[in-house]
Amino acid sequence: MTGDGTRAVRAGLPAAEAYQPPVPPPVFAAHFHLPGDPSVAPYGYGRESNPTWVALQEAVAELESPGERAEALVFPSGMAAISATLLSLVKAGESVVLPSDGYQIWPKLRRRAEERGIVCHTAPTGGDGQLTALRAAWDRGERVRLLWLETPSNPGLDVCDIAALAREAHERGTWVAVDNTLATPLGQRPLELGADLSVASGTKALNGHGDVLLGYVASRDPELVEEIRQWRTVLGAIPGPMEAWLAHRGLATLQLRVARQAENALAVARALAERPEVSGLRHPGLPEDRDHALAARQMRSFGCVVSFTLPDRAHAERFLAALRLVDDATSFGGVRSTAERRGRWGGDAVPEGFVRFSLGIEDPEDLVADVRRALADAAG
Question: In this structure, are 241 and 284 located in the same domain?
Fold first, then answer.
């Protein structure tokens, strides 16, 4: 089996053909010539399939599950992938356990699910909260259809044991989905750890250039994939071919970007650890992080995000304003470093001075120097 870098460069590409481009161009088509029986046609109508998506889907499946056959479906955003997975697989009267500390749109999606008769429970990522919530629902006689994990969590960076939770869930017929956005398939492979579904926002590190909205779900279970595929087709939650092509092109540098970002994240985390005004510092790659041992068992790279808290809102805003190499923006995983005060959105249970910092691929020495100078300016 090839290495991650080779796989990322080659995944989803056709065999070399004389005088043809190595990466096929995007296919813009609402419909295709369709003689005869449509059930045997690879392409017929643009809402059902497109050669450009198919190539990206094959690439994502290779990255998420290099040792065993899997399928992937791409969507126009990460939330489209998350919503399709949850709402297509869980029916009215069934239960789910969701992260209480995950991506801030989750409470809004949870309300939509509850409006459709789905029973929703929440639990924090760290500790035994998820297992406790699962067992409590089972003890009440509920049919818990899906356990949703987000590890590391966004923005708090807590880590949970995917393999242990999957074993427990599967004993009672509960599927496990893992939001793998922050780790990327090069940093963590939920399907190898026992999860049924790996879901992610391709907007972040997968594409990595801050110019595409995209999402995906991958699974080794063809029945789950087909259920979600039908949902995508019926609702029309399809990506554009240009977005799919850009994301596929970006995969070629995924390993290089992920490695540099992880290096930068650890360097900045170590610099932050030196400062007395910094509290609540989290990064799974720090040996002193409370989840480091667990993260080291199930992750191969610790991600690009560092989170920490400055004394108050004003202090955090002075720090962000003083940074010269870091954009004040609300995404993560891109080639350019970004940071933001998460409390400005109101959707995360974090202190007013909480900062989520996403490291790009700049030189680590420059980033560390910028952070130290900005911290000094903010304190002064």
Answer: no
Residue 111 lies in a domain: yes
Q: Which of 4, 101, 103, 216 is catalytic?
A: 103
Q: Three-state DSSP class for 66?
A: coil
Q: How many domains does the chain have?
A: 2
Same domain, 320 and 210: no
Shared-domain flag, residues 246 and 282: no
Does 1 map to a domain?
A: no
- Are residues 35 and 95 both part of a single domain? yes
List the CATH number of the domain containing 241.
3.40.640.10
Q: Which domain holds residue 179?
A: 11-252
What letter does residue 14 receive in the DSSP assignment? P
Catalytic residue among 4, 161, 179, 289: 179
* Structural domain includes residue 173: yes
Is the same domain home to 136 and 234? yes
The one catalytic residue in 43, 45, 47, 270 is 47
* Spatial separation of the C-alpha atoms in residues 64 and 160, rounded to whole Å: 19
Annotated active-site residue in 110, 145, 189, 204? 204
> Does the active-site annotation cover 47?
yes
The answer to whether the pTM exceeds 0.85 is yes
**In sequence order, what E strands does the chain have?**
71-75, 95-99, 119-123, 144-150, 175-179, 197-201, 215-219, 279-282, 305-309, 327-328, 338-341, 354-358
The per-residue pLDDT string of the chain (380 residues; one tens digit each, 9 = 90 and over) reads: 789 999 999 999 999 999 998 889 999 999 999 998 988 899 999 999 999 999 999 999 999 999 899 999 999 999 999 999 999 999 999 999 999 998 888 899 999 999 999 999 999 999 999 999 999 999 999 999 999 999 999 999 999 999 999 999 999 999 999 999 999 999 999 999 999 999 999 999 999 999 999 999 999 999 999 999 999 999 999 999 999 999 999 999 999 999 999 999 999 999 999 999 999 999 999 999 999 999 999 999 999 999 999 999 999 999 999 999 999 998 899 999 999 999 888 877 899 999 999 999 999 999 999 999 999 999 98
Whether the CB-CB separation of 310 and 277 falls below 8 Å is answered with yes
| Catalytic annotation present for 45 | no
Look up 179 and say whether it is catalytic.
yes
> Are 184 and 99 in the same domain?
yes
Beta bridge partners of 176: 147
Instruction: Evaluate whether 118 touches 112 at the Cβ level (below 8 Å).
Output: no
Catalytic site residue 103?
yes
Does any domain span residue 175?
yes
